[in-house]
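CORE FACILITY INTAKE
Project code: CF-77B
Contact: R.S. (postdoc)
Sample description: multi-component assembly, two entities in total
Requested service: structural model of the whole complex
Turnaround: standard
Below are the sequence entries exactly as provided by the requester. Do not edit them.
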Amino acid sequence: MIKTEHVSKVYRGDVKALVDVNIEISKGEFVFLVGPSGSGKSTFMKILTKDEAPTEGEVYVAGRPLNRLPSWRVPYLRRALGVIFQDFKLLENKKVYENVSFALEVIGYSEPRIRPLVMQALDLVGLSDKVDRMPHELSGGEQQRVSIARAFVNRPQILMADEPTGNLDPSTSLEIVRLLDRINRTGTTVLMSTHDSTIVDAMRRRVIELEGGHVVRDQDRGVYGTSD
Amino acid sequence: MALKVGYFVKEAATNLRRNKLMTMAAVLTAGVSLLLLGGVLTLGAFVTDVAGNIDEQVEVSVFLEDGLTEAQRQDLRTTLEDLEVVRDVRFITKEQAFEEFKELYRDQPALTENIDASILPESFRVQLTDPERVDVIRSKVEMNPVIDEVVDQRATVERLVRFTSLLRTFSFIMVVVLLFAAVLLIANTTQLAIYARRREIEIMKLVGATNWFVRLPFMLEGITAGVVGAGIALVLLGIAKTVARSYIPVFVPTGALHGVALGQILWLLILGITVGALGSAVAVRRFLED
């Protein structure tokens, strides 16, 4: 589902964000990407969504060789991916329902197809009773669940979460990860970057640890840090 | 992908409303520049008509000294008629000249009442097969002592044509500058619209909306501004032509001032669309593509 071969990323000024990263993630896996700030987690995510191109190496995502993907095909890659962020990225002037339906509208879904899909997604994240609320009327955890519904509504093959619990308290964070786990059980591959050792330790899933751009650990049923 | 026309129109309309002042500035600049262009095109057509008309009926007047004998007149007439470039020669008596004079200055009775036919010269009106060949007449008869003066309207026509082409060149430069200003203003308006929607655009790209889907509402907005500008220009041009017509003497051909020619409509519309599309494309290119 995701495969990188000798991927390196060097930013201007000779900053090595990633060095010779070789990772393979199969369909249906749940993977934590851990490591301190600046270890290359975000760069790695951005390369997978083709927000950035690697300086070297080959990247395959959802069956597509990204190096050879023409820019007009990038939107179709993004449709195979759901992405959520620490800051939710909800549209403040749209209701919960509209925030989710927007994701389908702008990729050309017709109105009759949109409604059931949006309701299913909101039901999955447990917000079917808050469809008419505005984002600012929701708690942080609820807002993140809206963003998960938006990422999942198109049934992507891969869900990528970049520090999704960074702004949330511990118990809410655990709820969010349980939700991602539930989505994972539908067959969706989940890749989540995090700082949160409690969550990683509680879930006992595959852990890939980055440090200074190097993969320093890739462990099944791992915990946050060997040194912790 | 289903083409969601309603979506694009709604988005473009929202953007136009949101930036009313900028949109108005863009529309008006496009309108003024296109109006000026329409004016230049019309003026060109009008002057071409007028010049052609004058050329066609150009006559050379050969004014005679007073007191010529019939033989002298007949001699001169033969000389003129024998010239290859001459099509027709008409003799105008003092009385006929006075009739014409009265007709020409009929609204200035002070002039016509105070003179009589005797002070006007007799003349031959010579029509040429080729109006360019006035010089032949001049070289042939100007030195003849019975002739007072040879007058033709070519110099006037030429001055008019020269002046018009100068005016046209200058106006075209103005049109280009103004159209450029319109492109910049539309780019600026689009830029504001993009800025206002930057969050939406970010999400659209995130969830895989195609570039055209993101661009189209903004392009449509720019094109609408351009087309509305062209519409305003066309309406004003029509009005200006009607007004201008009433100031023009009856004997001047006004074909170019009747209605707005289809060619002009197309020109202005195409340029309006181009200006709008170009302006918004510039902004979209700068702010949407990474």
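Facility notes:
- The beta strands of chain B are 59-64, 86-92, 123-128, 147-151.
- The longest helix of chain B spans residues 154-196.
Invoice: internal transfer
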